[in-house]
Amino acid sequence: MAKKQNADAYDASQIQVLEGLEPVRKRPGMYIGSTGYDGLHHLIKEIADNSIDEAIAGFATRVDVTILEDGGMTITDDGRGIPVDKHEKTGLSTLETVLTVLHAGGKFGGGGYKVSSGLHGVGSSVVNALSSRLIAEVVKDDQLYRMEFEQGETKLALKKLGKTDRPSGTSITFYPDATIFKEGIDFDYKWVVDYLRHQAYLTKGIYTSVRDERTKDRAAFYFEGGIQSYVKHLNIGKDVLVDNVFYVEKQVEDSMVEVAVQYNETFVELVKPFANNVLTPDGGTHLVGFRTALTRVINDYARKSSLLKEKEDNLTGDDIREGLTAIILVKLPDPQFEGQTKNKLGNPEVRRYVEQVMNEYFAYYLEENPSVAKKIVGKALLAARARKAARAARDNIIRKGALDGMSLPGKLADCSSKNPADSEIYIVEGDSAGGSAKSGRDSKTQAILPLRGKVLNVERARLDRMLNNNEIVSLIKALGVGIGDSFDMNGLRYHRLIIMTDADVDGSHISTLLLTFLFRYMREVVDGGHVYLAKPPLYSINRGQKKSYAYDDEERDRILKEIVADKVEKGLQIADSKDLVKQAGVTISRFKGLGEMDADQLWETTMNPENRVLIQVMVEDAERADAIFTKLMGDEVQLRKSFIQSRARDLDLEELDV
């Protein structure tokens, strides 16, 4: 029984009160998520989003970002400029209030912004708190004002520098605090480029630019078409059903609804919902309204046009959304996001707004473009037939015990543990490596599933065809999560799915085929952090009784240099690594494949949790991942050829046997 402590020991003196921006420096993760790469770049977003809000409100036309050579970041807009007059409540200038007081900003009512992405209003002050230095410059009424801060504290008070020719607006320069961001404070140019490109797509007519003073790289974006251009960008490399993009922008009460839609010939849905320029990956009421209206409008048109017969069932939402690419952007004065991460929109009225706009304007679009409408309905009808065929195939397989979890694949060497958290499955290339893996594994926690040859490229196949592929069925069956509308993460039998293929081009191709399948049809398994790539060694380095393994050329050279240094220290005259091999009896062997390793070697190098190297597969940018899979596995040969040619200089020609 726990001993009760003296109650008097807990008094007011033990309650810590943090003032000003102290809470941010004390617990930065609560405000920016992390103090690693993501948190560092979140600082950019907090400042730049304020500039974007000025553009959304119609007061700014451009946002310019400069990555400074000395490690700083400058973000400038040509908006109204943060007010510099005295704030009635704080007694400070409004600029100082915004930069030093949490929850101070123009986004809590009072007419500062009708629409903004900054729900919580802590952005500028948080960036200030987490910066070793921050300089704010404001141009208003042709006058330039400046303030400086250190770690959130005012260093140089607001000063009026006089008349300037610079346009009105705000410029914030900040230097992330290295004592907070201990993993590094180097900004990623590519991250900034991607962020500004997206903002230019989402804010029609805004000009965004980035300049990297470290490398002299620069990029700029301007899309008159806004989200129409975005949809076209997402469909690059895909055969589109029709060239034109359906687009509508409509004011409904105090909100704006903007939608762009285009179909392609793939079997994948790609819909990106945004609220006030914030991506809501978990959807919300705007996505529900869009899907409901899309399904209703297409079914109504199909019935009226006799494309859907009287006795036929309505097309399902899944049928209608096959090959759909769409952007939904709603702008509203008081967005109710779920959680600090803003992953889901909760405003109930937005569902009605989006439904109303889609019901009216998408119906007009189909009526006015009958040839387009016929293609869209035709694709959905094909999807419906394929879905029924897939269900029949799956039911047939289930009758044979293949997908019901009762009958596991015959070639699966299962582990004895029944606890998924302790269990892992190795997907192994070929029977030879599979045999070694089965002999060398820890049978309590490690299952082995050898695959014969290359699995089906699911980028070019519907589910009905996939279920006729033995290797795909074996994988579905082994994992236990089902497929399609029967998919259920609760059935996952292993919390680590490890793809183990040869360290060559064929092995990489097989890994890519498997990753394509998992990304397209078992995305939740990937997002859950359950998928890994095993990294087998390339070299075995033997020196007498001692054996080392190298996973790449650099590690091989490092090991050889260490051996050379050791031998020289002991008095042996060795000129280089080749001389070492001759004089000291060191042998270097290169593995051509997993099948060359015996069970002990495979366990020691690639399967033993104490020694192995695993690469976790995570989707950091779903949009980029979709584009890569389209390039590598899609039908467009020229895209794939260009992708390979652009990276030819990075290839190991010796490895390719060129």
Lay out the secondary structure.
Layout (H helix, E strand, L loop, with lengths): L21 H5 L2 H4 L4 H20 L5 E6 L5 E5 L16 H7 L22 H7 L1 E10 L2 E8 L2 E11 L5 E8 L12 H14 L4 E6 L5 E5 L4 H8 L11 E7 L2 E9 L6 E6 L2 E2 L5 H20 L12 H4 L3 E8 L16 H21 L1 H30 L24 E6 L1 H10 L5 E6 L11 H4 L3 H10 L16 E5 L4 H17 L1 H5 L3 E4 L4 E5 L2 E5 L2 H17 L7 H8 L1 E5 L8 H9 L6 E3 L5 H12 L3 H10 L12
Parallel strand pairs: 1-7, 11-13, 14-15, 14-16, 16-17
Antiparallel strand pairs: 1-2, 2-6, 3-4, 3-6, 4-5, 7-8, 9-10, 10-13, 11-12, 17-21, 18-19, 18-20
CATH superfamily heading of the domain at 22-222: Histidine kinase-like ATPase, C-terminal domain
Structural class: alpha+beta
- The end-to-end distance, rounded to whole angstroms, is 72 Å
How much of the sequence is in beta strands?
Answer: 15-25%
Might you state the CATH topology name of the domain at 22-222?
Heat Shock Protein 90
Largest sheet: 8 strands, mixed
Our count of helices gives: 21
CATH class of the domain at 22-222: Alpha Beta
Low-pLDDT stretches = 1-19, 401-406, 651-658
Q: How large, in whole angstroms, is the Cα Rg?
A: 30 Å
Q: Count the beta strands.
A: 21
Shape: flat
The largest beta-sheet arranges its strands as 5-4-3-6-2-1-7-8
User: How does CATH name the architecture of the domain at 22-222?
Assistant: 2-Layer Sandwich
Q: State mean pLDDT (0 to 100 scale).
A: 83
